[in-house]
């Protein structure tokens, strides 16, 4: 029986290592560093996003603990105190700068605003019965739904003020007051024209003319 003469090599022929396709160095976004570590600008963006998210979460949660009174503060030097929805009867605000001050729904009976700067102030639905508003700068003030009965508006400048709804000036003194561009109900305009007289010392406009009295 013939023996097969098979010879085995003492050394195995090594297989060539697998070769990965080489990146194209000409690619515009290729960088040798990208094969090693993430780009630094990406890490920075991630850290910044996390920091912002944490800050916004803290800010939103803190809003639940804000003193509700802070939402009712107005402008001007008296803004450090709450003037909205308060009983401020007889308070002395004379000569003060109360620009855009918020007096909404407040009780201001016999309050003294003589000579005060109340541009854009809000007296929405407030009670100004018997208040002294003489010589006050009330341009653009909001008297919507306000009770301004028996108030002193002598020489006050109400140019562009709002007086919509059930605003009432019954029994008020309006000598020299300027009602230019104040939207009044027909019954209020008719009533005020019966008592209107004088000229506003600041604007030089006659009260009757500003009320469009016939």
UniProtKB/TrEMBL annotation:
Superkingdom of the source?
A: Eukaryota
What would be one Pfam family of this protein?
Pentapeptide
Gene Ontology cellular-component terms listed: chloroplast thylakoid
Q: Which residues form a coiled coil?
A: none
List, alphabetically, the InterPro entries matched.
5peptide_repeat, At2g44920-like
The protein here is known as: Thylakoid lumenal 15 kDa protein 1, chloroplastic
Source organism of the structure = Camellia sinensis var. sinensis (China tea)
């Amino acid at each position: 029986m013939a023996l097969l003469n098979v010879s085995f090599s003492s050394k195995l022929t090594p297989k060539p290592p697998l070769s990965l396709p080489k990146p194209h160095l000409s690619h515009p976004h290729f960088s040798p560093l990208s094969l090693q570590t993430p780009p630094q600008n990406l890490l920075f963006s991630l850290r910044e996003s996390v920091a912002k998210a944490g800050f916004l979460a803290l800010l939103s949660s803190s809003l639940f603990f804000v003193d509700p009174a802070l939402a009712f503060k107005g402008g001007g030097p008296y803004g450090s105190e709450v003037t909205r929805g308060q009983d401020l009867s007889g308070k002395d605000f004379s000569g003060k700068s109360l620009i855009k001050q918020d007096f909404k729904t407040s009780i201001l009976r016999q309050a003294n605003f003589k000579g005060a700067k109340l541009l854009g102030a809000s007296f929405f639905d407030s009670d100004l019965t018997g208040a002294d508003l003489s010589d006050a700068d009330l341009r653009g003030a909001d008297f919507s739904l306000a009770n301004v009965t028996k108030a002193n508006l002598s020489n006050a400048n109400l140019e562009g003020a709002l007086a919509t709804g059930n605003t009432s000036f019954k029994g008020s003194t309006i000598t020299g007051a300027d009602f230019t561009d104040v939207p009044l109900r027909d019954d209020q305009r008719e009533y005020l024209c019966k008592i209107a007289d004088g000229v506003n010392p600041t604007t030089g406009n006659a009260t009757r003319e500003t009320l469009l009295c016939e």
